[in-house]
């Protein structure tokens, strides 16, 4: 059974950086497209970034483009989200998601992903 475990969240000041890690187990990581979503209080879950199975294709929400970088390590079965120049509006619970695919594409709809982590809180103070 596939399990995803996020780590790396915390409380930081605006302008700081954080790196989130998603540890994958229970399946063949190299066959899973991965993504990060976030959900702020009172808001719907929103897409942040996705990465294809090979890592060659990445996609970002406009709100994080140029500040966040998604990556993956297929040898260590982990995905990462490097977050720079954090803003208070980035405050949310961040979720890692994975979905098995034979294609090397990225997917922004949460409905596409079958596997989810429990989330990690990121709080950015002004």
Helix and strand topology:
Blueprint: E1 3-7, E2 10-13, E3 18-25, E4 32-39, E5 46-51, E6 58-60, E7 68-73, E8 78-83, E9 92-100, E10 115-116, E11 120-125
Parallel strand pairs: 2-11
Antiparallel strand pairs: 1-3, 3-8, 4-5, 4-9, 5-6, 7-8, 9-10, 9-11
Observed structural traits:
four-stranded antiparallel β-sheet, mainly beta, 11 strands, seven-stranded mixed β-sheet, 0% helix
Question: Which residue ranges are poorly predicted, with pLDDT under 50 across at least 5 consecutive positions?
Answer: none
Strands, count: 11
Q: What would you call the quaternary organization?
A: single chain
- Give helix and strand order, one letter per element, not per position: EEEEEEEEEEE
What is the C-alpha radius of gyration, as a whole number of Å?
Answer: 13 Å
Please, how many helices?
A: 0
The share of residues in helices is: under 10%
Q: Kindly report how far apart the N and C termini lie.
A: 40 Å
Shape: globular
Secondary-structure content class: mainly beta
Share of residues in strands? over 45%
Q: Residue-averaged pLDDT, rounded?
A: 96
Word description of this protein:
Helices cover 0% and strands 50% of the residues. The chain has no helices and eleven strands. The relative contact order is 0.32.
